[in-house]
Each structure stands twice: as C-alpha cells, then as structure tokens.
C-alpha cells in the first residue's frame, strides 16, 4: 500500500511540477514562481506525510509525526483570508457578491457587510487579517505539539 501511495505521489508531483515549470518557462512571472514553489512545498509535505503514516508505530504511536505534516499542509490555506483582506483594502470597500447560490458561508458575508456599514472598510479587513494570522498561529502551535521527541 505504501508503494501505491508513493507511486501516486510521484506521478502527481512530477506532472504538476513539470506543468508549472513549462508555464514558467513560457511566460516568467512572480505569480508562476510562487505557484511552482507552492507545488514543491506540497510535494515535500505529502511525501513526508506518506512516510510518517507508514511508520511501524502508525498514526497514533508514541513517535507520530503525521499530525505535524497535516498542519504544514493546511498552513498555506491561512493565506486565503489575508488575500481577501488585501482585495478589500485595494478596492476600498467590501463588495458583497450575490451569485444566487446558497452557501454555508453566507452568514460570514453578511457579517462582513454589516461590519463595513458599522466601521468602514477597515472592519472586514481587520477581521480577515485576524482570522488568517490566527489560523496560521493555531496551526503552528498544533504542529509543535505533534512532534514527540
């Protein structure tokens, strides 16, 4: 089973890295460099997660490290609220997009719109910055507790 996951990892990593390298070769830009670095980061984290999950002591043993790698995999997701905060700051206002679909995050959108009416565009920006930084700090704190030495 470990061999299957390593082969699947190698196939996906080489394919995505090759595609990102090809796009970077055709039209170099900072965004494509960041995408290539992100693919390399995820490749390393997934490989280490596969190695940690197939250790003899397993996922719940005394020297587990799989939680550490899961926290590192989730860490770049904390950039999404920061990117949204940057877009709000750049536009000068939080724009509530109504695409007609009902999502579970609709209450968050309404809360950000209400906060903008109350405080101005800095309200949603500060909330999203706090959420992004808080997520990153929480994941880093959790990752420290996952490594048993």
Task: Explain this structure.
The protein is mostly helical and 149 residues long. It is built from 6 helices and no strands. α2 (30-53) packs antiparallel against α3 (66-74) and α4 runs antiparallel to α6. It starts with a helix and ends with a helix. The relative contact order is 0.11. The mean pLDDT is 80.
Q: Which SSEs are present, and which pair or pack?
A:
Elements: H1 2-26, H2 30-53, H3 66-74, H4 79-91, H5 106-119, H6 122-146
Helix pairs in contact: 1-2, 2-3, 3-6, 4-6, 5-6
Structural class: mainly alpha
N→C terminal distance: 27 Å
Radius of gyration: 20 Å
The major β-sheet equals: none
Order of secondary-structure elements: HHHHHH
Secondary structure tally: strands:
0
What is the count of DSSP helices, taking H or I runs of 4+ residues? 6
In which range does the helix fraction lie?
A: over 70%
Would you tell me the overall average pLDDT?
80
Quaternary structure state of the chains depicted: single chain
Strand content: under 5%
